[in-house]
Amino acid sequence: MAATLANGSADAPIEVSAIPTVVGINFGNSYASIAVLNKEGNADCIANEDGERQIACAIAFQGEEMYIGNQAKHQLVKNSQNTIIGFRNLLGKKFSEIAVDKPTTSALVIQHPDIPDTPAYKVQILQPAPTPLPVSKVTSAAVTPAASNVATPRSEPISTTRILTVSEVTSVFLRSLVQSAEDFLGRKVQGAVITVPTWFGDEQKKALGDAASDAGVTVLQLLEEAGAAVVTTTLAPRSENDSLPEDRTQLLVDLGASGLELSLLSVRQGLAHSLATLSDHSVGGDAIDDRLIKFFAKEFTKKTKTPLTVAPATEPQDKRAEARLRLAVEHTKRTLSASTGAATCSVESLKDGLDFTGAINRLRFDMEMRPIYDGVYKKVQELVEGAGLDLYDVDEIVYVGGSASLPGLDEALAAGFHENVVTPFTAGTVVGGGVGDPTTILARGAALQAKLLATLGEGSEEEREVKAAFAPSSRWQEAKATTKTIGLIFPEENAESALGGQWIPVVLRETALPCRRTVRFDVDLGESDGDKKVGFEVWEIKEGVKFTKEAPPKFEGDDEDAEEDEEEEEIETKEKTLEKESLLTSLVLDAKKAQKAGGGRSKTKLEVQFMIGESGELSITAFEAPDGEKVTASVATSL
Amino acid sequence: MSHVVELPIVPPPNPAGWTPPASSGKSVAPLVERRLIPAGPAYLAHVKRAVHQLTFEEHDKHAEEERKRFETLNGVNGNGEDDLGIGDEPETEDLLSLDPKEWKKQDHYAVLGLSHLRYKANDEQIKVAHRKKVLKHHPDKKAGVAGDSNDDAFFKCIQKAMDVLSNPEKRRQFDSVDPHFEELEQEVPTEKEVKSHKNPDAYFFEMFTPIFEREARFSRSQPVPMLGAVDASKEEVEGFYHFWYNFDSWRSFEYHDKEVNEGSDSRDDKRYTEKKNKSERARRKKEDTARVRQLVDLTLGLDPRIKRIKQEEKATREAKKKGKAGGAQNGLTQKQKEEEEKKRAEEEAKKKEEEEKAARAEAKKAKTAAANAAKKARRAARTVEDDAAA
Fold first, then answer.
1. Residue A86, Cα to own-chain centre: how many angstroms?
2. pTM of the entire predicted model
């Protein structure tokens, strides 16, 4: 029998799951999102059981039920006093620190009745009535009549109030997020990375950490939002953004619902540090909503002759109408971001039983939002100037947050930047779950960071030290960075540029130390035969931006337009400039591996490595690729 | 790894009069304190370098080791799916243009991409291989592809192959007549080939070892003694020949049976075909037994060890003779002599037995031939009768 033969001896595979069950949670003030690792080890933003990738940070209590997420948001219309929103920003804050003057449409923040100086929410709930006590058999047999077979009717639930602290609310919410992830994965979540905004202090971080551990979530790291964005953008497959150098200056525009946060980051081969940050709570998605609501309210008044004043609304009827509109425009905004056509907004029984249907196209929308875009642009300018840089120094813009998905914002911003600036819109990575999708970028970054942290060992003292370096305010986060760009100049006769030769930047300014950079390039050796030498100088360079103003070119023969011409301003052009700062050293090596290229000129491949130590000592190694003789030079540190 | 940036810049040659300027003695401009964002693998690498006080090169080495460790941990094919070593065999044009109607002639193992495993493939491997092929060749997958989308001939071949190989009985029948091995069976070297080879001993073992390894799969009793090496002991060699002269094979030839014509309900027809098949099977079986015997005969005739063993025996005998001549150890020699005698008798008996066996086979053959002839004659007579009746 064939079956009795010594058949194939392949062993059954041992199941080693290479992917830990960790999640990344982007915990915003208005919306949260969850990302998990997929089979390939990449991060995917997942939807919760309601099919929402953007989960509203809201908890509503109605009767005996508790609603979390987008379902809770809908409670804002009828059940606003029992709906809690915007609780993240209150984490770790004292009651006295919170400005309560802002009109809200949700549950009020009150002083906790027992714990001093603690903000809390008071909600009306229905508590299920206690089940009737089981009747004791001994006494019942004699005294009470025979028990009927009918089930005891359930007693009416008791109406009661419940006081929830901000931390409790956060715990409940985080628990529901992790639950969604566990339902999706089918396995227990081992750890999570949660994003925090840059302005979160130690108090807030601690409060969030405590709330998370109350919810039973192991927090691997509380990661700054900027960090999450950097992880996502630097770990993206290279083919998609090839035009981007590995050393770049990144501008992070986080336009959330409740505020604008800007960060200017120096990303150097994935290692990032912040050059400047700015947060402004006056512009944000809510402001966009306000404008849109006002626009539609005006249209409603025009169509139905019913007065409707919103944002801020005063009358209770108007308030309810505003809440309705606010929910409806969310959809309108998303439609606008996704397609170029017009988007509708329809609300049934907006006010006085009158339905409303309005439409807005992108042009009109951008016109309405112009002041907001301009506000963002102004803040960006302020930030970049504050860092001593120019808009032209920014290589990449990364958008974060739902409101930043608006193409109009990108168009408005990009006008001020260099034409080569890469944004998710120019790279085409916004749609289709691309790298640059502003709504999921943070969650995905957090998940990738969680994957990284999950692989860290804890065996030795040093490994624990490495792990501790990811905690806030670890000393390993302190690093020195260069202030000037260092590079090579190949001297040239009759050079066009101001540097007197071909300039090759190697170590850019704001590169964290210690660092190592290697460049490889072909060198032209001229037409002559005989001994060939390659020589270059190593310079520090001062970078700047030159403004030149020039009158617009006038066309002859268009005298009839003369009046218009006068109104035109001078065109301002910007240009990046380079200036020699100081000569560091120079190197010469013999080219032994020159190869004849076309046109009788010979070429050789040169590889130059720059190594800068922690305190600024520079050593340069140059050799002919792949294995030529190495020539080195070094520059001592002045410290 | 050291990350090398390839630049598209081609710097010009140095100017004629250029000499490298002396170092200015200046150092890198004053540094600024920055706070790194603790995120991403780059930060991890930075911290590892700092904590373990590694240089860039040392860290590169560490990272490389780590990567390798992870690779081995996750297995060679990191996708987590194990194909049990089936691999991916190229599908030739001939294979893809097989006709499912001629399924008896196809090589089922080749169709499923298992031609490197053949009878060694286990049921699990066959299942995985079948799934693989179906995923690739299912007609639903081909719909929409240019050409004849109804061309599911190869898919039918796959199904037929699975049909045969998943059934132990059918698989045994097919394994018995595996076309791949039948081809190899023809390639037994002749006596002349071995003898004329410049190194006959080495050639003998090179040629015959795989043959016996192949034939061993038919043995009902396992394990099977193999040919062994040049310096095998007498017992081993004898054991080998003893086993192979009494080879008990499970090989059968039902696979070559002619199909009973389904269309006809004539019982006679059916019986006739069955009978014919049976005799054909028996004939083939006999042929196969004869083939194995011939093969063992050939091996025995060519085996250099037999000569060696005979020489050794002769040497011991002579040594004994000499000892006898010396007049010493008389009793022992007597004993040896007795033993030898016994052995000779045994060998003779064996020979006789073999001869008898062969003769019996011959006789049986003749008998069958006679029976066949008689049958033929009877049939001829019947046809004549039938004709006459008509």
1. 19
2. 0.66
